[in-house]
Structure formats: C-alpha cells, structure tokens
Amino acid sequence: MSDEAARADAEGSVVVGRDGPVLRIMLDRPGRRNSLTRLMIGTLVGALTDAAADDSLRAIHIRGAGDDFCSGADWVATNEPGGPRPRAGDLVRRIPHAAHRVIELVATVQLPVVCSVRGWAVGFGCNLALAADFTVAATEAVFWEPFVDRGFSPDTGSTWLLPRLAGVARARRMLLLGEKLSAADAADWGLIHQAVSPAELDDAAEQLVERLAAGPTAAIGLAKQALAFGQHATLDQAMTQELFNLELSCRTSDFKEGLEAFRQRRAPKFRGR
C-alpha cells in the first residue's frame, strides 16, 4: 500500500452521491473493515441531516466498501497510548452529536433506509443495520455486539433496538455474552429483513431500494414515524397519532393517484408528492 493509500485508509471516508431520487452512502475504509473515524461519523451526520430536508429524495441506501459493512467506531484510533487525555465528560458531550445522532437520524428520517451488509457488522455497525428500515445481508455476514467483551457498556442504541426487535432474552445473549449472530439467525430473530446468498445481495437490495423509491414517499415517512411513536404509546395514543398522519397523507398528490389507480385497476405511479 502506498503512503497516500495508507493515509486515506487511516482517515477513512464516506462516499455520498445521488442516484436519481436515491441517496447512496458508502462507508469507505475497507482496509479497516470500514471502522468509523470521527471524520466519517461527522460526514454521516451531515449527509443524513441534509437528506431529511431534501424533498427530492425518496430513499437512502447504505453499504460498506469491500468485504465488510462496518466494524464499528474506531476506538483504537481515538484512544492511542500516550495520546492527549480527554477531559472528564468527553463522551457525554460528544457522542450524542456524533454516533448517537447517526442512529437517531436513520431511525427518524422520513425516508426509507436500506442497508446492504456483507462480512462484519459490529457494534456501531451492527446497530446502524438494526436501525435501518430494511437490512438485507449476505448469508456469510456476522452481527456482533462486542461492547462488554471490550470492557465497556453498550451504546449507539443497542439496549433499545435489540430488546424491541428480538426480545430481552436474546438481547442479553448478544449484549452480555457477546454472542455472534449469523445473517440467517438475524433474519429468523426479526433483526433484519432478509438473508440472501452473497451473489444475490446486490440485486436483492437494489430491488428493495427501487420499490421504496417508487412508493408514496410522504405516506411511507408518516408510517415510519407512527411505528416509532407506537413503541412507547398506548393504543389510544397510537391511533390518535395515526389520525393526524392520515390527515396529512390524504392531502398528498400520491393519495389522489393511489385512488385513481385503484378505480382504473392499474398500478399507481407515485411521484413522492
């Protein structure tokens, strides 16, 4: 590896691009299994924040470069022996605006988010995949929450996501025992959408992205918001929220198109408006 390539790999990058109505995000640090530096996390926060306010977008697709999705935050790089000692409270001040903000944005942005996972999805990377609306993984992929194995407690939403998706007993197995999970088991547990063969991963993810990007974007976003709200609401509160969302979605052009397509017995052509 050349000096320039070594420096690029040390810093890492997140490649962000538009593909029509789809925002494509690639974690690009394959030499370190796409572990995330502070710079990369900052780029993710910026890209997702911008996407939340971009009415021309209709879906987000996140993947990793090379053979892995993401091996988590690069704690080694930020805790080098002999490096400057951070002030007390550094993590409490910084992480809510960095790694935790990424998870929050993925979970709350009113656009469908799809993750494609190959190889390792570890720690922050695992939780990023769990926070997405749909994650498609190659059968050889491995999901792992190694926080306790490394001597510190879980973060990036793992203690909220895992119990809700797979139940408390299974969450304990992953978070307290550090059990690694295959993509097939992750799909069986309800942690991800689908496990497919490595050769089928790109096509399966792309079909899903295209389907979501062609959908009624406002209604999908409002449904996503209602699902999140319902996780901490009573039935009555959830149905009240649904009514407000219904009022909004019924005022969209896509709602009118959906009704017209139903009357004409044809597939609707949604415009995301």
UniProtKB/TrEMBL annotation:
This is Enoyl-CoA hydratase. Signal peptide: none annotated. InterPro entries: ClpP/crotonase-like_dom_sf, Enoyl-CoA_hydra/iso, Enoyl-CoA_hydra_C. It comes from Mycobacterium alsense. It holds the Pfam family ECH_1. Belongs to the enoyl-CoA hydratase/isomerase family.
